[in-house]
């Protein structure tokens, strides 16, 4: 009889999970052998859950760096982790071996990550992890335990300090103001090379107990296992059917953002403790509801809807409009690529966000304008004029690429990519005050850089020599197609921006732009660089001249370039190359080829069980926000037909793959327009 009930409950759970996924908002998984977690994040911190009860792998801190080693470059910091619990029932710790009915669900609508399971025949357990959008340095774990018989529980909240930290000071204090008592577990430590002080505080919240009625609270016990393992626990006896709800909340602050991170982390925790949970979580959910006013709705293919929405969820989770920060290739999911900022933001992630959320788009632009002075210093240091942006950027705005990587010294198209994004932001927003104060000053410096960076040839043309292009398999080449094309575009846009703000453009900008070389093979196919002869390429380079640059735009050459370079894409390369080809095919009216390449741009890169994207089919480094940006561009600028022009956002020749019944683009541009393609 008991087995029959369990089987029925399992069937019911799978039906509920399926219905949740069918709405296009929830992704649910049961136990799997190979597990890649999916992050919850709020643009400041990211919490990465595991497939173990009440466990999280890490907390990542945005824009907080220290050197990775004495001779290394900067690396994003792991936070001091407050997001782990140990739970015992009747003296037995809950673990993966004594539970059943395991499932985990990401609800993208509310950015909540829920785990459900049953402990033996004693209790049903559910907990949801929120990285609070409204209280941006904090997280919240909401727990529900439903006893199936009389039980005693012991719950321990743990603050774990990564080994790379130094001199941790782990404490527990009960703060008090009049009759209000506030228990706070805390650890403060120095980052690996001593650049920052990091402070994490945490506490329990019992929803049914007023914080001032201390005599009704379970008794708290503090245990410091080591300076790196700080614990706070309570015990409670529950009757059968007596549902018990509580929360564990924590905050992590650093000297990157606060002069006194220790005290500030306490304030966040106290705020969460003394704010009713319905209000606290309600504010978080409302902010996510506002984010989803910019959305992509696919009818007729649930899996595609989930994949696309998961990509957009990550771009929203990794950013915020009030931060003036950017997005690293792996966002807030890991320390991969040291958490540095690349062209990935401007060329791949920025365009979808520019369509769907101008506040976040402006934040990404402000990240660069805030570091303009460092870019001007770099140009001077290398013998150029204007501003020269680093290939990898961190909090300082200086070059953060490891010295051994030639990209850091020679991949210069990033400087043009930044300026192109700036002009596109203006074309969409029409914010002339921003253009005058931040946009044009940067674009002017970039244009001056490209004039000084170009070399005049004997025939009067200009070359850009000794660069690493978008195809990083070919270092130190001359006249790389994308580098030259992006420089031309940046120079032309600077001239247009000058007119817009009433300034006189430097005549050299247009002169150089009109004479920079774009090389061709004898049959008219665009040549990737001066010495290119058909080698395998890491990612799209030449084809970026068609989209997004619109420099190669006659159909015959566009098709030639597509047919020539697609077979040369390496399977080890990142996903974005396929996305570029997909957009171009869609704009040519070939929905079949566009859809094939759209799926190929991310399907081989999905990792179980939630579909987190790795950088390439052969890699295992999710979540790759750059790839998410690429696939979203296929939907918006390919199938959706959106285009950025001097008149703002327009729609040209949308096309629908036969696999979809309709496509709705919601909340597009400053006027929040809706476009529906059927």
Using the alpha-carbon principal axes, give the shape. Answer: globular
Distance between the termini: 51 Å
Strand order of the largest sheet: 1-8-9-10-11-18-15-14-13
CATH class of the domain at 27-291: Mainly Beta
Domain Glycoside hydrolase family 65 central catalytic: 309-504, 531-602
Domain Glycoside hydrolase family 65 N-terminal: 40-255
Organism: Flagellimonas maritima
InterPro entries: 6-hairpin_glycosidase_sf, 6hp_glycosidase-like_sf, Gal_mutarotase_sf_dom, GH65_N, Glyco_hydro_65_M, Glyco_hydro_65_N
Quick structural summary:
This protein is α+β, with helices and mostly antiparallel strands and 678 residues long. Helix content is 33%, strand content 26%.
Provide an overview of this structure.
It is an enzyme of class 2 (transferase). The chain has 678 residues and is of the alpha+beta class. The protein has a domain at 27-291: Glycoside hydrolase, family 65, N-terminal domain (Beta-galactosidase, Chain A, domain 5), CATH 2.70.98.40. It contains 16 helices and 27 strands. The strands form seven sheets. The protein has a nine-stranded antiparallel β-sheet with strand order 1-8-9-10-11-18-15-14-13, covered by helices on one side. A five-stranded antiparallel β-sheet has the order 7-6-12-17-16, with no helix packed on it. Helix 4 packs across helix 16 (625-639), helix 9 (413-429) packs antiparallel against helix 10 and helix 14 (576-587) packs parallel to helix 16. It is globular, with a radius of gyration of 27 Å. The two termini are 51 Å apart.
């Amino acid at each position: 009889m008991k087995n029959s009930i369990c089987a029925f409950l399992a069937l019911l759970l799978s039906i509920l999970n399926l219905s949740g996924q069918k709405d296009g908002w929830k992704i649910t998984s049961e136990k799997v052998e190979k597990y890649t977690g999916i992050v919850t994040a709020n643009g400041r911190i990211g919490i990465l859950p595991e497939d173990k009860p009440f466990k999280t792998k890490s907390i990542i801190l945005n824009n907080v760096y220290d050197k990775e080693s004495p001779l290394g470059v900067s690396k994003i910091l792991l936070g001091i982790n407050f997001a782990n619990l140990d739970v015992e029932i009747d003296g037995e710790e809950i673990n993966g071996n004594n539970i059943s009915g395991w499932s985990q669900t990401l609800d993208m609508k509310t950015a909540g990550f829920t785990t459900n399971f049953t402990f033996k025949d004693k209790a049903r357990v559910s907990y949801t992890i929120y990285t609070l959008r409204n209280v941006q340095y904090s997280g919240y774990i909401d727990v529900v335990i439903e006893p199936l018989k009389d039980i005693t529980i012991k719950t321990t909240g743990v603050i774990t300090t990564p080994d790379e930290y130094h001199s941790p000071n782990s404490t527990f204090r009960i703060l008090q103001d009049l009759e209000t008592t506030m228990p706070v577990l805390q650890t403060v430590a120095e980052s690996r090379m001593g650049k920052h002080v990091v402070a994490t505080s945490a506490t329990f919240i019992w929803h049914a107990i007023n914080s001032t009625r201390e005599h009704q609270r379970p008794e708290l016990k503090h245990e410091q296992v080591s300076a790196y393992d700080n614990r706070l626990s309570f015990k409670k006896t529950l009757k059968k059917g007596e549902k018990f709800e509580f929360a564990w909340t924590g905050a992590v602050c650093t000297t990157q953002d606060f002069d006194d991170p220790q005290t500030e982390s306490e304030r966040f925790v106290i705020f969460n403790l003394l704010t009713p949970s319905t209000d606290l979580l309600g504010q978080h959910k409302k902010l996510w509801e506002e984010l989803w006013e910019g959305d992509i709705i696919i009818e007729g293919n649930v899996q595609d809807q989930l994949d696309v929405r998961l990509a957009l969820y990550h771009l929203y989770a990794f950013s915020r409009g009030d931060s003036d920060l950017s997005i690293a290739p792996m966002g807030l999911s890991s320390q991969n690529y040291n958490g540095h900022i690349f062209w990935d933001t401007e060329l791949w992630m920025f365009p979808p966000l520019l369509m769907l959320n101008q506040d976040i788009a402006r934040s990404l632009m402000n990240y660069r304008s805030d570091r303009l002075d460092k870019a001007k210093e770099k140009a001077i240091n290398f013998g150029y004029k204007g501003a020269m942006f680093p290939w990898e950027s961190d909090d300082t705005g200086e070059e953060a690429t490891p010295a051994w990587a030639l990209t850091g010294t020679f991949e210069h198209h990033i400087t043009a990519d930044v300026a192109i994004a700036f002009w596109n932001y203006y074309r969409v927003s029409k914010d002339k005050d921003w253009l005058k104060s931040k946009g044009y000053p940067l674009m002017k410096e970039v244009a001056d850089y490209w004039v000084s960076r170009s070399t005049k040839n004997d025939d009067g043309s200009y070359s850009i020599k000794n660069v690493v292009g978008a195809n990083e398999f070919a270092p130190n080449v001359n006249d790389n197609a994308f580098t030259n094309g992006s420089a031309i575009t940046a120079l032309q846009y600077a001239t247009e921006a000058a007119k817009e703000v009433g300034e006189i453009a430097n005549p050299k900008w247009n002169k150089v732009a009109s004479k920079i070389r774009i090389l061709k093979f004898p049959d008219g196919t665009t040549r990737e660089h001066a010495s290119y002869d058909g080698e395998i390429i890491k990612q799209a380079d030449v084809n970026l001249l068609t989209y997004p640059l619109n420099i190669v735009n006659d159909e015959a050459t566009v098709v030639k370039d597509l047919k020539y370079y697609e077979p040369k894409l390496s399977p080890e390369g990142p996903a974005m190359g396929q996305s570029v080809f997909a957009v171009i095919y869609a704009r040519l009216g070939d929905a079949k080829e566009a859809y094939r390449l759209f799926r190929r741009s991310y399907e081989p890169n999905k990792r179980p069980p939630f579909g987190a994207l790795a950088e390439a089919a052969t890699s295992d480094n999710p979540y790759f926000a750059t790839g998410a940006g690429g696939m979203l561009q296929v939907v918006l600028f390919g199938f959706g037909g959106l285009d950025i022009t001097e008149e703002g956002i327009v729609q040209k020749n949308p096309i629908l793959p036969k696999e979809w019944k309709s496509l709705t683009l919601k909340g597009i541009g400053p006027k929040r327009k809706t476009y529906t393609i059927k």
